[in-house]
Design goal:
homotetramer, mainly alpha, Tetracycline Repressor, domain 2, 9 helices, DNA-binding
Chain lengths: 192, 192, 192, 192
DNA sequence: GATGAATGAGGATTCATTCAT
DNA sequence: CATGAATGAATCCTCATTCAT
């Protein structure tokens, strides 16, 4: 098996372990065992538990960003692009439950690693902020930033809620979220 | 020092440790040391690391709920009550940074303890859901539930953002969040 | 409650704890708690866990020896005295299960305390040895000593067996043991 | 050093520690140190202190049973077989003082582990009981069982006595014990 | 005399990490 | 390149024992 493939396999297994137990409780023994690789192998590939974790975060984050980026074409109308991106976001969450869980959970906890994860989140927030500002309304930079964070937080929470409600159709959730985002933008602009 | 006071002191110290390192990485040795108490003392008071953690969550959660409950009088108008509660929420977050961090962080991670924390969050969500439903608009139970989660998630994210922006006046954030909530309720009701 | 009575109560409770968990696993906390006495009390009375244990052994051993001594009158025939003593022995074992268990169990294990317990046992063995020698047969001192140990060991084992066989009448066991002892004495004397 | 050899070495060292201090007081630190192995090594080999202990009991017990079994050939006369087995038993006790001490001591104490040891002892008792019953005398099942326990107890006690009397030749003790067993069988059969 | 409160010391166990092969 | 084997360092937790009151 080529090295690249093995690396991906290890990352998959590691992601599952992190999602199941959290960073600290996941053990390198378990990960190596489930990947059918010796532990020194894992260390030779990733250096340390922390680096392995970061590599997983990085890969998952990049996948998410890529999908969001390519979800909408430049020629689409703003509303269509928003809807497309939200749809893509929920699709990603559904397809990568482990990755999503790790990304989201660790965004909030374990201080030492938070910075790396925060970076990913901040890129999403930045995109949302741009979107808010490009709506053409009169919104201060500060308000745009704050509202962008609120929008992202709402999306995370909504996604988690939906993940545990298999019966709710994705389209419905997309609808809600689209409307929420639109309303949020208007709310951010409304004068005193 | 009376026992009750020492218990509170230990909880404070424990909260700081949990906030700094997360549940797993925080060590009982560190907590006992910083509380200027021997480890067996901590065990005699709280039984185990897990119980100590739960005691902290419980205390912090109760404080938050109490404040939210008493923030608004029954005679206030709905909008006033909403604003009062949000103000209180942000005040709590500001005053109890450690507690908030632990509550919020562990809501998302560390599987074994998540249940206890999830319980607190779900009570807040339930209150928000009732609020959504009592707005008098035509909203399905499902939509109300989903939107309540989105609102809570937005609030959490907004609070965290604000915590790192000392210069932003609380009133401003309250304003945004109030508007966001109102908009969210309307959005949940809007037909296709 | 007078001190003497409290001491006895503590000893009783301690004996039960030692019988249930063994010396090491029995905890002073448990003993003090069950005797409804504070721990410093126990220490003031007995000094240390080891001393408490020895005090229990001592009391129980003395009780056993007393009963064996007074079981038979000097005017009885040798066989009657043997039977009376064995009967008394089994009665003691039945009435003082905890004490017997501790006495017997610790006779074999826990090195540091073995000496004290061994002393009690050796007094019983000595009595048996005298009995063997007084049988009037030609038996070397060594053989008498060895056989006395064998006889005592047989009795211990038989008593334990009987303790778990509630349906077996004591008289029957006494009979067996009397015969065994007699046979053993004869066996010890038999030439090559 | 191959793994198998190291396992045996650890077992030897552990046996010595258990014999010296008893199960509870023996520490894994001490055992690992004396075996010149790190503690995690011991855990990787045996899993836990309890498992280490059981492994030792198991090994020692099997050795004893094996030796008793092969001590006598099927073609030997009953008396010769009895003598051969007793000789073997004493030889084992002499050669494996630690093992014998642990086996014998823990047969009587420490509740949680007693079962495993009791099993070994009960197999020996069963063999003795069969021997008693095959003597051709009229003996009730109950009497045979009780007497078998008495015989085993006598042997244990006699062996311990002998262990501290280096000057007493083994042959002599064997002789006594053989006669005692014979006498015991007859005693069990004798009518009222 | 009596105790609630406190602790020093140590025990079992686990884990990330690294050589020797 | 790959690994089996090994460990230093922590971690949670318990317990016999003792003051200050």
């Amino acid at each position: 098996m080529p090295r690249a493939a093995r690396e991906q396999l290890i990352l998959d297994v590691a992601g599952a372990a992190f999602a199941r137990h959290g960073y600290h409780a996941a053990s390198m023994d378990e990960i190596a065992g489930q990947a059918d690789v010796s532990k020194p192998m894992v260390y030779s590939y990733f250096g340390s538990k922390e680096h392995l974790y970061l590599a997983y975060i990085e890969r998952t984050g990049r996948q998410l960003l890529d999908r969001l980026e390519h979800a909408a074409g430049a020629e689409d109308l703003p509303l269509e692009r928003l809807r497309a991106r939200i749809t893509e976001f929920l699709a990603f969450v559904e397809e990568h439950r482990d990755g999503w869980r790790v990304l989201f959970a660790e965004a909030a906890s374990s201080r030492p690693l938070a910075d790396e994860v925060a970076d990913l989140r901040s890129r999403i927030v930045a995109a949302v902020r741009r979107m808010v500002q490009e709506a053409g309304l009169e919104i201060s930079a500060e308000a745009a930033d704050g509202m962008a964070h609120a929008i992202v937080g709402a999306g995370e929470s909504l996604a988690n809620w939906w993940l545990e409600r298999a019966s709710v159709p994705r389209e419905l959730v997309v609808d809600w979220y689209v409307k929420l985002v639109q309303a949020a933008v208007v709310a951010a602009a409304a004068g005193p």
